[in-house]
What we know:
Structural class: alpha+beta
Strand content: 5-15%
Distance between the termini: 30 Å
Shape: extended
Order of helices and strands: HEHEH
Amino acid sequence: MTTSSVDIAGIQPVDLDAGLVFSGQPSGRPVKGFDRPCAHTPILDSGYLFHDAVREVVVWFLDPTDPLYVFGPTGSGKTRAPSF
């Protein structure tokens, strides 16, 4: 095993509070994350705050229960839009 695969194998997925991750304020809305940083994940910077509008969009996209209605003219890229 390489050092990278050992490093990745040692982290565990956990539910984190989206508000704490994206704004420093608890929201009660869970997002998936890892129990600690590794070579492939950033270290949490408690001094960095996402803009409120960006934070809300990110949290909304991460919630699989909220539907997304995509519309537009033929050929505008609706089919090729990334799915999460």
